[in-house]
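Quick one, tokens below. Sequence please?
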């Protein structure tokens, strides 16, 4: 069974990994000075197991022999066999320790790692959306549209950061404007065979498939037009270029709904330290997020407009933000109130 320990440093060298559904990214933190060795990104499907990916892409290419391992995973962490969402790999800490020589393994949630990053990223790693360019040391929120919609809070208390990885991407979102009421009946809801009326969760709007959901619903609302695009990247490219009216509207609505949900989360966490947009999609649609629709929806929270107007919003542009967060934790675990119960093996 997993063994726990207070937030002591894991033994160096520490291998840190951000394991997504499609790609995995690794670095070795050599020692307390923070000296770090980076490795080329791994395409998950090129390796049948994560053990093989670590062995061939990291261990056999480096002279450093990591003593411990910290991984950020997309998916719930429970028990000694942790399957990944959207990838056939299974993480088995005891097997990794026995076969690859780690004395300790710690598993974190991927958005928890994004939250650790939001606590420690430099201004150069973030692009402000709106007038406020600085994030004070106060509670924060991270949300990231990608394959799904990851959400984490980051509570600031006792001079520490407490990440709160929840399932906030699955909150309900309802229609508000006249245009929303035209579109909503055509959106694909959450698949739930027991429900008589499907619900529209934030993730059904704010993810790659969410952008397609909005675009296809717009096509239906406009006299059942045949969609011109099959992929989210095509919709965003046409929307950014202004070459297709419905793609442009889909992108603007995506920014509006993202602002709405981000504003709700900022209210819930009273995130005066800022809201950070992580994940793969936000940096790719930066001009659409900067155009004003995101920030307008974010602030449109009567009776608390003044609170929201005072909260900074950012797109995280650091290419390996989760690894940055894991490194910050590895080097200074006392700065974080992170519970390692049930996910630390030694
Ligand atoms: N230019 C783009 N515009 C809009 N959506 C995009 C664009 N490029 C990729 N996507 C969509 O983003 C989603 C992938 O998101 P992301 O890059 O964050 O990957 P992930 O699987 O969530 O994470 P990881 O890369 O760690 O495996 C897919 O649904 C993809 O279709």
């Amino acid at each position: 069974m997993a063994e726990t320990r207070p937030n002591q440093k894991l033994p160096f060298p520490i291998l840190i990994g951000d394991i997504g559904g499609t790609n995995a990214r690794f670095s070795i933190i050599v020692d307390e000075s923070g000296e770090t060795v980076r490795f080329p990104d791994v395409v998950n499907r090129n390796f049948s197991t994560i053990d093989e990916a670590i062995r061939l892409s990291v261990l056999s290419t480096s002279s450093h022999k990591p003593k411990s391992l910290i991984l950020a995973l997309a998916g719930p962490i429970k028990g000694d066999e942790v399957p990944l969402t959207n990838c056939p790999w299974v993480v088995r800490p005891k097997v990794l320790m026995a076969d690859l020589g780690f004395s300790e393994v710690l598993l974190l949630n991927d958005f928890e790692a994004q939250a650790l990053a939001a606590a420690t990223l430099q201004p150069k790693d973030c692009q402000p959306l709106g007038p406020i360019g600085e994030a004070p040391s106060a509670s924060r929120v991270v949300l990231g549209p990608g394959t799904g919609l990851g959400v984490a809070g980051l509570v600031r208390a006792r001079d520490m950061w407490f990440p709160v990885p929840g399932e906030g991407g699955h909150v309900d979102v309802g229609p508000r404007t006249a245009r929303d009421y035209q579109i909503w009946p055509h959106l694909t809801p959450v698949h739930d065979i027991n429900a008589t009326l499907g619900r529209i969760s934030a993730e059904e709007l704010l993810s790659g498939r969410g952008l397609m959901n909005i675009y296809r619903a717009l096509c239906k609302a406009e006299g059942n037009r045949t969609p011109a695009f099959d992929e989210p990247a095509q919709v965003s490219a046409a929307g950014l270029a202004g070459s297709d009216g419905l793609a442009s509207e889909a992108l603007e609505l995506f920014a509006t709904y993202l602002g709405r949900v981000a504003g709700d989360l900022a209210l819930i966490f009273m995130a005066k330290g800022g809201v950070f947009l992580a994940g793969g999609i936000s940096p790719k649609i930066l001009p659409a997020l900067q155009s004003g629709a995101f920030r307008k929806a974010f602030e449109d929270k009567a009776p608390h407009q003044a609170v929201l107007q005072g909260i900074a919003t950012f797109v995280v542009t650091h290419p390996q933000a989760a690894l940055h967060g894991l490194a910050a934790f590895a080097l200074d675990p006392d700065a974080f109130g992170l519970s390692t119960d049930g996910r630390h093996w030694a």
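The domain at 122-317 is CATH 3.40.367.20 (Hexokinase; domain 1). The pocket of adenosine-5'-triphosphate is lined by residues 20-23, 146-147, 208, 211, 232-233, 236, 279-281, 284-285 (CB under 6 Å).
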